[in-house]
Design a protein that fits this description.
The complex is a heterotetramer, with 2 copies of chain A, 1 copy of chain C and 1 copy of chain D. In chain C, 35% of the residues lie in helices and 24% in strands. Chain C is of the alpha+beta class. In chain C, helix 7 packs parallel to helix 8 and helix 10 packs antiparallel against helix 13. The longest helix of chain C has 21 residues. The termini of chain C are far apart. A 9-stranded mixed β-sheet of chain D has the order 2-1-3-4-11-10-9-6-7, with helices on both faces. Classes of the chains: A alpha+beta, C alpha+beta, D alpha/beta. Chains in contact: A-B, A-C, A-D, B-D, C-D. Chains A and B meet through strand 1, helix 1, strand 2 and helix 2 of A and strand 1, helix 1, strand 2 and helix 2 of B. Strand 2 of chain A pairs antiparallel with strand 2 of chain B. Adenosine-5'-diphosphate (ADP) binds next to strand 3, strand 17 and strand 18 of chain C.
Chain lengths: 93, 93, 726, 225
Amino acid sequence: MGKQFQLNSKKNKLRFSVTVTLKKDVLDPQGKVVQNTLLNLGMSNLKNIRQGKFFEIEIDEADQIIAEKKVEEMCQKLLVNLIIEDYKINILK
Amino acid sequence: MGKQFQLNSKKNKLRFSVTVTLKKDVLDPQGKVVQNTLLNLGMSNLKNIRQGKFFEIEIDEADQIIAEKKVEEMCQKLLVNLIIEDYKINILK
Amino acid sequence: MEITKYIIEKHGLNLEEFKSIQKLLKRDPNLLELGIFSAMWNEHCSYKSSRLHLKKLPTKGKQVIQGPGENAGVIDIGDDDAIVFKIESHNHPSYIEPYQGAATGVGGILRDVFTMGARPIALLNSIHFGSPSHPKTKTLLNGVVSGIGGYGNCIGIPTVAGETKFNETYNENILVNAMAVGHAQKSKIFYSKAKGIGKSVVYVGSKTGRDGIHGASMASAEFDDNSEEKKPTVQVGDPFTEKLLLEACLELMKDDSIIAIQDMGAAGLTSSSVEMASKGSLGIELELDKVPCREENMTPYEMMLSESQERMLIILEDGKEDHARKIFEKWDLDFVVIGKTTNTKNLIMKFKNKIEGNIPLEALASKAPVYDRKWSKKKLSKKKMELKTLKKVGLEEGLIKILSSPNHSNKSWVTSQYDQMVMCDTAQRSGSDAAVIRIHKKNKAIAVSVDSSANYCKSHPITGGKQIVCENWRNIISVGARPLAITNCLNFGNPENNEVMGEFAECLDGIKEACEFLNYPVVSGNVSFYNGTNKKNIFPTPVIGGVGLIKKLSKPMNHNFKGEKNIILLIGKTFGHLEQSCFLKENFSIVEGIPPEINLVNEKNNGEIILKLIDSGLLKAVHDVSSGGLLVALSEMSIGTNFGIKIQKPKRLTNLIGYFFGEDQGRYVIEIDPSNLDKVVKLLNENNVYHDNLGVTQKEFFEIEGEMKISNKELFKINNHWYNNY
Amino acid sequence: MKSSVIVFPGSNCDRDIAVALEKLQFKNKMVWHKETSLPKSDLIVIPGGFSYGDYLRSGAIAGKSLIIDEVIKAANSGCLVLGICNGFQILTETGLLKGTLLRNKNLRFINRDVNIKVLNNQTKFSSKYKSNQILKINIAHNEGNYFTNSKHLDQLKKDNLIAFKYCDKNGNVNESSNPNGALENIAGIYNEKRNILGMMPHPERMVDNIISNTDGINLFSGLIN
Ligand SMILES: Nc1ncnc2c1ncn2[C@@H]1O[C@H](COP(=O)(O)OP(=O)(O)O)[C@@H](O)[C@H]1O
Ligand SMILES: [Mg+2]
């Protein structure tokens, strides 16, 4: 694990959400199957559904700009497959 | 496939996002591995990360209350496993 | 829109080729037509650089039902059973997006096999990565392995064999080759040749999107309203849809509704329609408005060039449309009649009541360019290894270095990510010389294996070419199967480079010679050129995928020692050839000299006698001796069993390192019950097969008297840690 | 004995289980998911595979299919139901079995032979096994990491509803013999009435010595009488 438990001082933490979605034009087999199932279940006014990933990230850092950069780095390095996915970062609360 | 192409009249469509996350007391093997990997990549001020699913849903319906009910129904009927997952619905734009 | 020089280049065509197009059309092509020429005339589809050389390969034999030229090769395994198989590369896409690239590679080769009416029964793969210390290797390895597994596991076809190798020559260009093997009834094989005029041309499967419209997409961006940047989009595999497509096609194939069928692989709708029509000397007319599209406002250009996966084109007998439609609808797949066959011998594309393109089919197929590219002979190294000049290495130390190296480590980290058992006919899984797959509900089986030797092929292409065929043949024999035929995937660098083209020509000479001698014909294959970057070409890496037959399967033969105090014989002569050996590479990082020679006469003789011994039930274990030499072969027979060896040093005066690590070809190690020794030796002598009696098996220890002793458990650990710590 | 195997789009162990059942003299029928009634059966099997690609959550979409309502009805009236691998996942999605199957803890697909221990040999499914007998059975899954809340876990233990646990070849149940991270090494569970069994290992792959072993046979042959 390598991570130490940190004192819970609210000031030092920031929370972000990251949503990761498939780029436009990239096939979304999952969304397709879910859409068909919902239509079969009678949800006839469903026009479109696309599936993606969602992360909730807590950072030990008081400075929002620095923290956001960290999250950005996580997305680029691991969380997002930049070839086929787009992402959006939002600060929470 | 069952679905017909619909006229593109903006008034009649509403877009929602749904985020689905594992309940607090449910083990999140994926989040744990992602967290460890990020820590190993040197992201030492990562305090916590949890992974979930994200849906973008477009509904053919002008009335927000009705549309939101539809999305709620989709969550309950299919998108969410209520035993282990929580969800949040947001209207987009 | 004007066709500029820039646009021509963007389509991968040179000006000479453009002039030929003008001549063939007797006018300028429009953009759609140019795109189609570019798709059909590129190296991948036209084989323009390789065709002259491929002609050399032996493709015939009593066992061959269909050789190269169809979606896959077909061989006869007796009764009404046929085996359909082919290998294909997906190198470049896998480097860009390893998971999806590898996954769609598997999907593509599966379609080639079930298009012909075969139910796929096994998947294999040959994957080559750069040096483990290269920053990209780990991600690529992870992505490729999970992509191969992801697709095969989901569709429910066992992935049973393959090879995983590391070599810095692949640092910037990995190799991902996938092979599929299917079983069909001999009397129900489907081909891609269209017949008859006015027949329905049917599109089935997934919808068409803008995936994989490559270099060409730049050109199309210029006339597109939305200025949004258009990167070539990556194809995403949908194994679930492929499973539906597989079942639907096989269901339709039960009767005789289908005249011709072809998967949409590279160059999608273009190549499938062109191939079917041109093989039948017919014309074809497509109404592109009818093509099921995933995105809005797709242009004819995009529809014709899209490489969306999980799609097929079928030409149906008259009046069968409703029957066929019902089947595809049952499986929730699109089914649309998008055109018909004609007698014009042209490909005509209509869109919104207008003819958007009209090309004589022969211009795309038989009149496509063929190049006799310049090539130069390999200059062979004269270097001989002088062991004396090197630091002394003990047998144990040398063995441990090899067994713990990435290339020789146990591959279960890879293979446990593949479902090897689904379909319940896998009698022998990954980890043995060849996998054994039973023919469903029968007691016969096939053996399959893929092999390559890039270092050998680099240093001596002719010998390398022979060696990979022979190694593959040996692997098939080691499980008691009669080798029948091969498929090959020829991964090479830039063919416009004389040396690369020379490697290609000479490797093929070697493959040809071995295949001819062993009666092991080539029934299908694939060529992948332009592997490399910045003028650095990869080592020539032809990959051989072989299939053999076990007429009566009891428990398949494998290489694990079965008991103690059994006798161990080494079949074939040992000279101690160390140049290009794994021993020198892993212990001294020396990759020099020329590889061991292949003696085809001995190869065949030794192989035949091993088969005979297995058939007579005289052997308990068999293993071929390959990379790493005798000591590595012996350790592989011990690891994972309770039995090791107790053997003596050779009596005659030889260099021990050469004896135990030399990679002389055509050799096998066998384990026999002492009571059978006389019988076996008699048979060997009668057939002029050389053998050494090495010693016996013993419990739990791996021992060369006076030289080394190590426990099996320890060997196992040494052999198992690399992947788990990488 | 009559059996029915439910086939979803994406099921891929349906043929395997049918072969095993027929080998053991079951009169077996394959039932397509769009059908709305079940043939009369003593045993219903939901086979392994990737129903609907397992695209949303494994088993989720199959859990909403037409035929599932019939399976639920039959199960509630006492019919034997066996869910293997994806079938187990589907049973948890329908609520016929409690708990859920999360991703394997190493986030990788795992295919290999593992040992499992028979914890309860007092059910119709397990009566032919000895108590604590160790079997060697193949697993092949991405999501086999069984999880349930502590209340349900207590109930599983108290009522002896844990069918199998992963162990090593000597029967030790511990972390190193746990392939996927499953709670307390659980490999299979029963419902309260013990007419429903969900398990991740594939017994149908272990009925033929040429292919593997015959450790799976007793699970099926125990049902015939
Ligand atoms: N190296 C080779 N040896 C023998 N046959 C080959 C080789 N490469 C390609 N072929 C044959 O040429 C034909 C066209 O190959 P390819 O374009 O790869 O097929 P597909 O269109 O199905 O992808 C096939 O029949 C294939 O078997
Ligand atoms: Mg093909």
